[in-house]
Amino acid sequence: MAAVVFESGKNVDYAHDHMKGVKDLLDAGVTNSVPDKYVFPENRRPSVAQVVQGESIPIIDISGLDGSQHERLQTIQSLAQACAEWGFFRVINHGIEASLVARMLDVAHQFFSLTSEEKMKYGNRDVSDPLRYGTSFNTNIDQFFSWRDYLRHFCYPVLQTPDNPPNYRDVAGQYFKETRKMALKLMAAVSESLGLQPTYIETVFREGLQFGVVNFYPECPQPELTMGFAPHSDHGGLTILLQNEVGGLQVRHKGHWVAVEPVPNTFIVNVGDHLEIVSNGRYKSVEHRAVVNAERTRISIAAANGPALDALIFPAPQLVDETHPPLYRSMLYGEFARYLQTTELRGKDNLDLLKIPKQEQ
Ligand code: OGA
Ligand code: NI
Questions:
Q1: In the chain, at which end, N or C, are there fewer CB atoms within 10 A of the end residue's CB?
Q2: The pLDDT of residue 15
Q3: Dihedral, CA atoms, 104, 107, 111, 114, nearest 10 degrees?
């Protein structure tokens, strides 16, 4: 039994093993308040900036990519606009079966419902381990813990999955294969939208690394004091995100936060740091965050599609000229990814590592 002592509603002693995650915390009876470790400073709490109403990310019908040449060009144009103005969009008519999506959400839920002992078989591992269960963001360096448990595993070229639930491997194998197909199709279109060969970006990704991040945010006794996933940008090329029916994702747009409502049968796609670099800043990775709520468990599943760890990332030469100097220096993707795992989540600061200072451009 966890030793949790409350004094007038506030935790004064807390001897629970935080590494087991927030679901474990709830199961241990911590249901009145969040332990101090999860209390974010006021200026980093969800309320720090207003969430604006009435705005939403663009919607793109990607069946147009398989349509007539005219339809394809129109779809590519709306993709270009969405990538340049928002860095985030919702895709519809994507061809991934609703039943596969439902099964994926189901095995994800089943995984987090396992005993802590079972989940911890994959816990306390190195941040670069191809299969890892964890909590918060990076517990080695997190100053404040986030109300989030996660399972992170490689999907391509090698699928690494937990042994339990027994059908996780089969379902995740199918699910991530489909989302990777969609990502490659989008990559070709994005490449074309930048005026590059359709295969330019796709080639980088064809042999690239895909990993899955299954986020589990159980109900939280004091959601206003903590975060589910602190503001960050994704470091890969394109992320394909699925959320269950519980909202919580917010995207930073023109200085304010816009909520991305859950809509059945749709996926959210966002531009990652790598695509910002390849496009030499024409498309921008965008800060996003997830907030938690007091009533319901939220699950989201990110399929992160990036280059291979030994690939060099740099602005496409065709997008660099006298009026468009290179904005980023080149780096091995693996080196970039490793660096990110040693820094605390802080919005889009990641890319500063690669930015070429103005006077040197
Ligand atoms: C992520 C992410 C947000 C969410 O996994 O990178 O941003 O909605 N998730 O859970
Ligand atoms: Ni993200």
A1: N
A2: 58
A3: 160
